Amino acid sequence: MIQSIPVYDICSLSDVRQDDLLISRFAPYLDAHKNLFFPHRHSFYHLVLFTRGAGTHSIDFERFDVMPGQIYFMVPGQVHSWQFEGFTDGYIINFSEAFIQSFLLQPGYLDSFSFFNGNLKDAVVNLPADSFATVKELFEHIIFEIMKPAPLGSDMVRLLMLQIFIHVNRLNSNPAGSGKLTYNQTLLKNYQKLIEQHYADIKLPKDYAELLYITPNHLNAVCKDLLGLSAGELIRNRTLLEAKRLLTNPQLSISDISLRLNFSDNSYFTKFFKKTESVTPEEFRKQILKP
After folding, report:
1. Contacts by 285-289, CB closer than 8 A, 24 or more apart
2. Which residues are in the HTH araC/xylS-type domain (predicted)?
């Protein structure tokens, strides 16, 4: 059983660090990193296309059935693990935001892709047959660029990756849409970014509304209109997710986790957790970490 929840950077998974990038066929990558079957986090973006295999893949405690033609997009900080049945293959790309951003003049460009928003319903895509063939060919071109370096090879890899991102993003986009966010969509994204930065120390929607220069009622209306959730629910959901992530580390006591998330005491944290999950933090930990 895993003894702690490791956080891997690209350098720790490869002997060669090139522009914050690691690219490999999946089978040899998995063979070299058998410890990745256990729950772990990454400090980088993580992209996997499966071409063969079966089993399950868990991302932030939601389980997905692995199948050929399936592509996964993961963002830094998510906890994931997998359990495969038989031989599994495909492609994997680990990359830092800096690897893409250094090529573009548009800050936060990756945020424009739905599958990099951290929402799991957008992060796992079952590709139609024609799209699978197109994306698979792009991965093959990337592997070729890595195996046979040429002038401006890193830029070619970036271009090929962007083709993958744009192609997959178009599958779930409104063809008639301009691709530009409305004012309220931009407001919601900014609210979600603030929550990501401050969920442990800012607990009330009114304090976020003040940072966004809007009223609490306006913020709540935007969240309900676009997500069907209240502004407070978004804060609580992010706090709960981090609690689950921290509980995968048996070296952290419940008191440690409660303190990290700024709960006044352990009993309040336990009540908060059990209200949504129907189990105590201790029971949840036992379920996650059982052999």
Report:
1. 285/247, 285/248, 285/250, 288/39, 288/61, 288/244, 288/247, 288/248, 289/1, 289/2, 289/248, 289/250
2. 189-287
Question: Using one digit for the tens of pLDDT, what is the confidence trace for 70-105?
Answer: 999 999 999 998 999 999 999 999 999 989 888 888
The CB-based long-range contact list for 269-278 (8 Å cut-off, 24+ gap) reads: 269/243, 272/236, 272/239, 272/240, 273/240, 273/243, 276/236, 276/240, 277/240
Write the DSSP string, 247-288. Answer: HT-TTS-HHHHHHHTT-SSHHHHHHHHHHHHSS-HHHHHHHH
Whether 216 and 131 share a structural domain: no
Flag whether pLDDT at 115 surpasses 70: yes
Counting the structural domains of the chain, the total is 2
Q: What is the pTM of this model?
A: 0.82
Both 213 and 152 in one domain: the answer is no
Q: Domain residues for 188?
A: 183-289
